[in-house]
Design a protein that fits this description.
It is built from 16 helices and no strands. By secondary structure, it is mostly helical. α11 packs antiparallel against α14.
Length: 417
């Protein structure tokens, strides 16, 4: 972080974004950790659980195409506050749930509230940081997603075993209200923040008026690159959601892992995945230094990473749990590397004022894919009681993603709108 002679109040804002994102991933991950136990206690079928997960993803998809406009109208401070209140109450409401319907309502509400986190965080960074520091600030708050994914299997079993499963939802849901105690006093528009020194305010606002007309989706959709990128997210986002919500159930069914032993394998999987983001970015940069076109370099990187996912099919047949964990870790590592490249492709080929809309549209496609996949996973498990078909699709999903990019995203063509 850079202080210099300007001050460092802006970094307190990004630290709050980091913790909001951490809470976001903890709250969404509680259900996955508790799923094997809840399924036994509450008598859910596999399709019941699939429908509950799909409710979250459907609401998340709706939120991705609506919350951005809401934030623009009511402002970041109020918008983030309302989103945090909504998803915190929804998280706590899980404790009162018993039926698949009540859990589905709680998950739907949670998904809609949580969909505002990343748009609000990105908007906050734009308001509080000059262009030269925004990538660093975004990287800092986005790291909260990794911390949340790692903390959840550490903390949730302890709460559930020491107290009960209801308290796991209540305590994690309450974290959002604790966050608001810091957010509301700290955050204001830089122009109106009395705690901000004049030198730092001048530094933050150095880029002047950046208002640029946002390009609407209907002008983006006709381009074939849009179809290619949306298909890529449609195929691959469901796999990441599957890891988040079904890994504890898979490990429980295949290796009899329970709340007392779930922590180490899940933590290892997500810790290894962190390295994928760095490796994916380094790999495409390596190809570019070798003279490849940037878009071609991203696609070549995605192809290599897609090959790393193929062995995940054998995770269902591994007799040793740690062999299975290693194969799954390779896939999560590859996904993070792929994600670094798929986001960058958007900025490579779309004009700057279309990037936000395109990322939102692609995220919507990914959430729709996740919703459909969750329904399908529940039905497949109910019919077959094994994960062979599911892991089989996961093993080729990233190759399908690469094929869609190869077909619809030319290497040397940028979009002019």
């Amino acid at each position: 972080m850079i202080k210099g002679e300007t001050g460092n109040y802006r970094w307190s804002v990004v630290i709050l974004l980091f913790f909001a994102t951490t809470i976001n991933y903890i709250d969404r991950g509680v259900l996955g950790i508790l799923a094997p136990d809840l399924q036994l206690r509450l008598g859910w079928s596999e399709s019941d659980y699939g429908n509950i997960v799909a409710a979250f993803q459907a609401a998340y998809a709706i939120g991705l195409i609506t919350t951005g406009g809401i934030l623009d109208r009511i402002g970041t401070r109020l918008g983030y506050t309302l989103a945090m209140i909504l998803w915190s109450i929804a998280g706590m409401f899980h404790a009162a749930g018993r039926s698949p319907l009540s859990f589905g309502i709680a998950r739907f509400t949670l998904g809609f509230g949580q969909s505002a986190n990343f748009p609000a965080a990105v908007k906050t960074v734009a308001e509080w940081f000059p262009k030269r520091e925004r990538a660093l600030a975004t990287g800092i708050f986005n790291a909260g997603s990794n911390l949340g994914a790692i903390l959840t299997p550490l903390v949730i079993p302890l709460i559930a075993l020491k107290l009960n499963w209801q308290w796991a939802f209540i305590i994690t849901g309450a974290l959002g209200f604790v966050w608001l105690l810091f957010w509301l006093p700290v955050y204001k528009q830089p122009e109106n923040c009395l705690k901000l020194s004049q030198p730092e305010k001048k530094y933050i606002l150095q880029d002047g008026d950046e208002s640029v007309e946002k390009i609407p989706w209907y002008k983006i959709i006709p381009h074939r690159q849009t179809l290619g990128i949306c298909l890529a997210r449609f195929f691959t986002d469901p796999i990441w959601w599957f890891f988040l919500y079904w890994l504890p159930k898979f490990l429980n069914q295949n290796y009899e892992i329970d709340l007392t032993t779930i922590g180490p394998p899940i933590i290892i999987i997500y810790v290894i995945s962190i390295g994928g983001s760095v490796t994916g970015g380094w790999l495409s940069s390596f190809f570019i230094r070798k003279g490849r076109n940037p878009v071609a370099a991203r696609k070549s990187s995605i192809f290599i990473l897609a090959l790393m996912v193929i062995p995940i099919f054998f995770a269902t047949r591994a007799s040793n749990m740690w062999v299975s964990v290693l194969l799954i870790s390779m896939a999560t590592f590859a996904h993070q590397g792929y994600a670094a490249n798929i986001f960058t492709i958007v900025s490579d080929i779309y004009p700057k004022n279309a990037v936000g809309s395109m990322i939102g549209l692609a995220g919507f496609a990914g959430a729709v894919g996740g919703t459909l996949f969750s329904f399908a996973v529940g039905l497949i498990l109910e019919a077959t009681s094994n994960y062979y078909i599911i892991f089989g699709f996961a093993s080729i999903a990233y190759l399908l993603c690469w094929a869609s990019l190869k077909l619809f995203v030319p290497d040397d063509e940028t979009i002019i709108i």
